[in-house]
Specification:
By secondary structure, the chain is of the alpha/beta class. The chain has 16 helices and 19 strands. The chain has helices at residues 3-10, 32-40, 74-95, 116-129, 149-158, 172-178, 184-196, 215-226, 259-276, 293-299, 340-348, 362-377, 382-388, 394-399, 404-408, 429-433, and strands spanning 47-54, 56-57, 69-70, 100-108, 131-142, 162-168, 201-208, 232-237, 280-282, 286-288, 304-306, 309-311, 317-321, 326-329, 332-336, 354-359, 379-381, 412-414, 418-421. The strands form 5 sheets. It has a 9-stranded mixed β-sheet, with helices on both faces. The protein has a 3-stranded antiparallel β-sheet with strand order 14-15-16, covered by helices on one side. It has a 3-stranded antiparallel β-sheet with strand order 17-19-18. The longest helix has 22 residues, at 74-95. The radius of gyration is 21 Å and the shape is globular.
Length: 453
Amino acid sequence: MTDAELVARYDGRVPRYTSYPTAPHFSAAVDAATYAEWLKALPADTVLSLYLHVPFCDRLCHYCGCNTTVVRLDSARRAYASLLEREIARVAALIGRRVAVSHVHWGGGTPTSLPGECLTAIMALIGEKFALTPEAEIAIELDPTSLPPDRHAALADMGVTRVSLGVQDLEPAVQEAIGRRQSYEQTEDCAAKARALGVGSMNLDLIYGLPLQTEESVARTARRALALNADRVAVFGYAHVPWMKKHQQLIAEETLPGPLARFAQQHAIHRVLTEEGGYIPVGLDHYARPGDSMAEAATMRNLHRSFQGYTDDSAPALIGFGASAIGSLPQGYVQNAPTALAYGKAIEAGGLAIVRGVALTADDRLRRDLIERLMCDLEVDVVALAAAHGADPAPLTTALAGLAPFAADGLADWDGARLRVSEKGRPFVRSVAALFDAYLSQADDKPRHSRAV
């Protein structure tokens, strides 16, 4: 079967499966009161991950799908930092003890849009309210074009151990089309300064499927990115959803590559990173240097998938702080109010900012674990997993009736117990995982999701 035929058959709109059930199935049935009870019920030996969302940027890139807005007033940024501190203190009080924390991730938006002193004050508060483990990872996302000098010092004071640099694409014409001018020299300088501060690990983000990109141009960007010597690279397909993200209407649709061109671009980046750069492919869209903890986790089948993508962090609970932040607790998922305004009103009122979520059923937990293993390992023993959950595997094996075309095309195989996705099928693993999604049959969900490739 040709690439064109594979793309035509399997490049449907499916979730990214950073959770299961996915966010469109969260509802107001899980609210702030529910969240408070879940926090109080956290087991005494729980180890947490923390996520802090900063929904501000100095500019709004046309392609962006994140929850962020352009905010330039220093007073507004400081006010938001104060809200984060109040939410952190409130959540810690409900837990009632200094719980161990193994991972802190700052995302956005642009986290460093907050003043340096605010960033360090928030990290100090986290150290006071929670017990950071000695090996805790402190990660932060950076925009190389928006990093004032005081933020450099803050990275060191915060104890940052990993930075993630948004690169996306290095071709001037593409950058102009997406409203993100960022020279290679700016990116290189940011990476060098982070290393000089003692940051031990660096991730780069690349995107294919952007306007005016070609197979040759994305390969050039990937080759230039190799010189930055990143420990990890994440490669994402651009999701054009102008009905959800109005600013994407600034991108002329006729400049976007078609499905087959996107597929070729993804393969071009894959070849550069693996054959020329020596990176190990991890899951669907991540790459890691041999010896990196993510590569080792993938080898040992200890990789996980969360709202931040692939991770080697195995903490059983994630607490989200800030507007739109999502948390994952043993009982289910919760999400804060999506806008900074609504989030601020909730915190100012003295409560929590949770507006929706979902309580997990036994079937949700089983399917969540199956989808995670498939997304992380490209294989799963369906029968053994069901037994570990004390469940009948029949509903899962029934879902595999849809696997026949994947098997016929060499993308996956099923031996009656173990399901495997082949290397050829790696780009389509989300489509295989979707076979087990009990919620996906709801027709109104499908426009919410990006294409598989």
